[in-house]
Hints:
This protein is an alpha+beta fold and 206 residues long. Helices cover 21% and strands 30% of the residues.
Amino acid sequence: MDAHLTPKEQQLLSFIEQYQLENGSSPTVREMREYMQLKSDGFIVHCIKSLESKGAIEKGDTPRSIRLLPSVSARLQGETVKLPVVGTVPAGSPVLSEEYIEDWMTLDQGQVKDPDNSFVLKVRGDSMINAGIFEGDHVIVSRKEEPRNGDNVVALVDGGSTVKRYVKTKSGSYYLHPENPDFPDIYPEESLEIQGVVVGLVRWFM
Length: 206
């Protein structure tokens, strides 16, 4: 505990910090009062003024707002990496596609193990829903990761690209398995080239 803060002030400051980390904004006076299990706002208002006078917090643009704490800003604004969004990969039947950079996606550095050898593809179709990969998702793909039996991969099969599970047969050959019973397994007729292993997924909720 910070020596110049009272136990209640430290408790409230810790709540503010955790709330900011989870929400990217500060709690309201009501939320702070409920967390501290108080019946009125008076003590909270007094505590906020005390924290401000002691330099533990800074007020924002509105009378009751609190700026992000330095500890929170440092974590929310950590180092980032940019990955190329390369075309769109179907999660249905393979279709012919040409690789080209459509956009760039910014991610936290900790989300990507090897950014120099990674790229992002947008998923179309619903053949991988039982693996938790849905249409509109963006998959992070590693070019360097060695594909293993059971991995989700981006593959070029007979000239078409797709994302499927990579499965080894008893004879030692490989085929692509969709994670949706409505789609058949894909056995390459001429060629099967693994373009990368799916190592992450990004999804936005609208």
